[in-house]
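User: My instructor asked us to take a sequence, write out its structure as tokens, and then describe one feature of it. I'm not sure where to start. Here is the sequence I was given:
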Amino acid sequence: MNKFFLHLIFFLILTGTAAAQTTPAVDVPLSITDGVASKELRFGLHPTATDGIDVSLGETEQPPPPPTGVFDARFIGDDIGISTMGQGLIKDYRFGYDTTKGQRIHELKYQVGTGTTITFNWTFPTGVTGRLQDLINGTIIDVAMSGTGNYTVTNPGVLNKLKMTITYNLTGASVPSAPTLLSPANGSTNQSKTPTLSWDASSGATSYRLQVATDSLFSSIIFNDSTIATTSKQLPTLNANTKYFWRVNAKNSAGTSAYSTIWNFTTAAEIGWCNLQWPQSGTITQGGDYSVYAQIWIDGVTPGTGQGAGVSAWIGYNTTNTNPNTWTNWISASYNSSGPQTNNDEYMADIGSSLTAGTYYYASRFQYQSGEYKYGGYSATGGHYWDGTTNVSGVLTVNPSAPSSPTLLSPTNGATGQSTTLTLSWNASSGASTYRLQVATDNGFSNIIFNDSTISGTSQQISSLSAGTTYYWRVNAKNAGGTSSYSSIWNFTTAVGTPAVPTLLSPANGSINQPTTLTMSWSASSGASFYVIQVATDSLFSTIVYKDTIFLGTSIQISSLLAGKKYYWHVNASNTSGTSAYSATWNFTTIVAAPSAPTLISPLNGATGLSINPTLTWYRPENAVTFRLQVSASPTFSPLVVDQASIFDTFYNISGLLNNTTYFWKVNAMNAGGTSNYSTSFSFTTLSTSVENEGGVPTTFSVSQNFPNPFNPSTTIRYSIPAESFVKIKIVNSIGKIVDEKVNRIQSAGNYKLKWNGDNLPAGIYFYSIEARSTGGKQSFQSVKKMILIK
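Assistant: Let's start with the prediction itself. The structure tokens for your sequence are:
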């Protein structure tokens, strides 16, 4: 077959694939925001895409850019040689398939609205990476893009356009494997009539087909869905007590898998009948017992002697005669082994002992296995499912019993400093309709000064009491069922005079590094009923941030204070006679907040050719005082080469590293408030030992053509340094990408020989560049030469 026909066939295959595909082969979202407004752009590959506007792919030309001050982001092509994109696009698909290997270039234009920066957020699929660069020289912004990441442009008013180079290394899809079934287990019984079937995900699958049948040959399919995108599906209502068979296959663009193994399950039997057996109605006194009976029949379960397995029963009650399926009060019922041994099983529960006085409606509820609830009602002919007309709820009347003795609440027993007009309160007694309050000046109640038996609430104000006097009080409760005994006798003493000024105790005046949640305490003032505390950010208390009234105790915990803030506080005391002056004003300062993790600066992550005595630098987070630096030759940081704490600067000089070794480093920050997380770890590689000083002191900078050239795989580069200089030698490929950095350090004057090995690189044209500047700053040198690597 000649080459022409091979090309023709390949073209037809691609054309057919492109015509059949309606969605992009690769579709990648790119979110752009100025911190206030945001927009999602999309790019990727499609077999029919062009570099222009593809309306069929959802690419539509945008209106002209909005005026300054209105957020906008779009794809354009002005600076990358594409003139067919009009005013710009939100979607920019390029020609390609899910097997494409190569690069596509996109241009982005943006402007801020009310924000001040522009942030790009991306999530790239496997096989897709990118590079985000400025359009000036590609070095002001030069960010690698892969996986999930983001980058923020801090000066979008200057750099308002970027170039995004996307590299595709795609392998295409393969037919997924047959799924593995998970649940319900094969052969399981008593399953719900609306079960959820689940299976393991098949790698690469985009959809699944689930088939359910009543026979293992699937000649009677009752469910067939090929559009399932997840690994589970809830079935519509099935028949009870029926065996079903099910299987699943998986599908993607490459094809459809074989079906899984066939599993089966059987749905649970159903409740055939239930009722509320008896009594129809009844009356008890509060706290009394009231037993209710109900029966159930399930074919094949309840007939015969003994309790049928899998049955759950309840008796429920409600204060209104509504449908029992809305009730919330259900008491578990037990099997009545002494009941009638017929086709029905009988259950019983007591619902009376916990009910307060009133009228209640009751019914039964049954469940078989995990099936639906069935509710039973009463009728003179035997009852059936509750319907509210023929089969109804029973009615229980609970008459009140005499209430219990009340429990006194306030003022507390033995309380002092009470007002001469105050409110006495007590706990409610269950079922009470009225209360009697008695107050006397003796505990034998021979001198009663207040006596009221018509109180309907649980508190009573009394007035015109004498100052500095002890009073005794008690309460009983009454309803239609009778009168309780009196409560315990409590006493209180009325106040004598205005309390003394409190003395502050803690935190100490002028204390620092206090927590943002702390307890303030002061000495008790004799005769005080309560205290008022004020906390402010100024000594004049013009800006009060916390104020509270404390009735019990001489301390209060306050929270949500600001870190690193100075606060002022004082306290006064009050009783019914008046309020004291405020205490002396004290102050304290809260501890500063723990710093955030530092950001590493240099050497850059992945830097190579570093000195074995490098200087590591990082940014100082707000409030950071000291830093801990850890350096290791392992990414797990075990063992450590350097573990240095108490660093006050944002740099650290390391010495004695090994040549040609990759090191990993990270930094955390500390202050009085705590320790931050470690920074993201960076790595760098020290200089190899392939550079030799051959001696001599030249008079000028120079670099020689490498020899041999072409070479495979090693060559030698010689260069001369007339004075001590900072020297950087880089190897770049034909598209300008740095593939190696051999020297990046200060070198003394001399003639040097550098041996370079390209064994791990492909054949091609490479360039080596030298940049040198004398440490005195008076001399500098730059040169670039070409070399050819052959394989």
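For the description part of your assignment, you could build on this observation: The first strand starts at residue 26 and ends at 33. Try explaining in your own words what that tells you about the chain.
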